Amino acid sequence: MTSQRDPRVLIVSGPSGSGKSTLVKKLLELPGTLLSISCTTRRPRSNERDGEWYNFVSAEEFERMVERGEFLEHARVFGRHSYGTPRRWFEEARRKALDLVLEIDVQGAEQVKLKLRDAVAIFILPPSRQELETRIRARGADSEEEIARRLERARQEMQCYTDYDYVVVNDDLERAGREVQAIALAARCARAMNDERIRKILDSFGG
Ligand code: 5GP
């Protein structure tokens, strides 16, 4: 199936530990969605495989991609590594008439919203600072210093929630999953995104 229309874009952001990746997977369970696989200069973690959730590239390759204008958005996240959304996912979503799902940080979301006015942005909030801290500690992977850094970063990122169209509080994974899916389904019914389809139906009635 081919489509000339720009694909619907769903942005999901939220602090580390908010469960946003799990909620993105819930979104991807909806037929008609496509995950944008970001490029990053950070190294893969032991459970990550290239091309699954990220494409891992060198800093030089990332710079070349920036110079060639290959990113829809890109940002240096936490001042350490670069992350970017390759435009080709947008083209692929257009070609296949799928909704494109971006799991990106607040800087990336701001860039995409400026370029694509109809993009739908969802912010995932943890239920409380205490709960976020408990989740980060449960991973058992971070030093006290890193835990404090993550919590401070979360506090800063959460200030940006006002730039988003929807906020989902992830206190119950089942419910939060249903909520992100409901947002995606509602976005499919937005009048502004259905002009062509509506016109065809009205035409079938003779205009
Ligand atoms: P992590 O390294 O823990 O997987 O991700 C760190 C942060 O980078 C998360 O907030 C994630 O949403 C964000 N991120 C992942 N991919 C992209 C991207 O393509 N662009 C931007 N701007 N942020 C991204």
Describe this structure in a few short sentences.
The protein is α/β, with parallel strands linked by helices and 207 residues long.
Task: Walk me through the structure.
The protein has helices at 20-28, 59-67, 87-96, 106-115, 129-139, 144-158, 173-188, 195-204, and strands at 9-13, 33-35, 38-40, 54-56, 71-77, 81-86, 99-103, 120-125, 166-169. By secondary structure, it is of the alpha/beta class. The protein has a domain at 9-37 and 98-204: P-loop containing nucleotide triphosphate hydrolases (Rossmann fold), CATH 3.40.50.300. Strands 2-7-1-8-9 form a five-stranded parallel beta sheet, sandwiched between helices. A four-stranded mixed beta sheet has the order 4-3-6-5. It starts with 8 loop residues before the first strand and ends with a helix. Residues 16, 38, 42, 73, 75, 77, 83-85, 103-105, 107-108 line the site of guanosine-5'-monophosphate.
